[in-house]
Amino acid sequence: MSRSVLVTGGNRGIGLAIARAFAEAGDAVTITHRSGEPPEGLSGVLCDVTDAASVEAAFEKVEAEQGPVEVLVANAGITRDTLMLRMSEDDFTDVVDTNLSGAFRVAKRASKGMLRARKGRIVFISSVVGLLGSAGQVNYAASKAGMVGMARSIARELGSRSITANVVAPGFVESDMTASLSEDRKDEILKGIPLGRYASAEEVARVVRWLASDEAAYITGAVVPVDGGLGMGH
Q1: Would you call 218 a catalytic residue per the annotation?
Q2: Is 169 marked within a binding site?
């Protein structure tokens, strides 16, 4: 049966692959984006996850067009990489506000409808960096690590209403960013990945879709790595 799905930051990369995976399964999917037009074949709504009023307006539009959100994928995020001693206050707070506080805002808003329905799926898109750490990404790693505590707290608060909250932690994914790396840097990264390759965005998307399925109904508060073994043990 078709469900109402919202994917934040779903206009490119992993978010777009996730949105398409749900759409292919027959769900009604809307993605949020901050500018431009949504990708072909997907419904979109303009939304700035750092602004509570913008989040409220986006949810109202989605609810009017496809019903209360039954599956939320909190994927929207930014990076501002630099070493800690060079990192400005804004570099840190802007990344945390978008990645972590933004995920909180959309999860809080989505949970209202889920509580009324007594069911729901929330999936946070974190990163192996949130568990492993990464030089030059103190802000990003902090925001992604915070998702784990947030998801587990939500899982405890809302579990009695059949609402699950889980985290997917991708490793390096084939993208424009990884394609632009030098060959030496690519070799260095791949040496640390037991499977010896990057993930595809579609591989991450399939895990997210599974966590939102009936097959994963008894899984909540989990952190599922999709990283080829890069972060195992963390």
Answers
A1: no
A2: no
The predicted pLDDT at position 185 comes to 85
- The count of structural domains within the chain is 1
Active-site option among 140, 173, 216, 224: 140
Q: Are 107 and 122 in contact (CB under 8 A)?
A: yes
Q: How far apart are CA 102 and CA 110, in angstroms?
A: 12
Residue 229 lies in a domain: no
Question: Residue 114 sits in which domain range?
Answer: 4-224
117 is in an annotated binding site: no
DSSP string, 112-158: HHHHHHT-EEEEEE--THHHH--TT-HHHHHHHHHHHHHHHHHHHHH
75 annotated as belonging to a binding site for a ligand: yes
Look at 97 and 183; give whichever has higher pLDDT: 97
Hey, is 85 helix, strand or coil?
helix
Answer whether residue 231 is part of any domain: no
What does the pLDDT look like over 209-224, one tens digit per residue?
999 999 999 999 999 9
For residue 172, the domain's CATH number is 3.40.50.720
27-67 pLDDT per residue, tens: 999 999 998 899 999 999 999 999 999 999 999 999 999 99
User: Annotated binding residue at 165?
Assistant: no
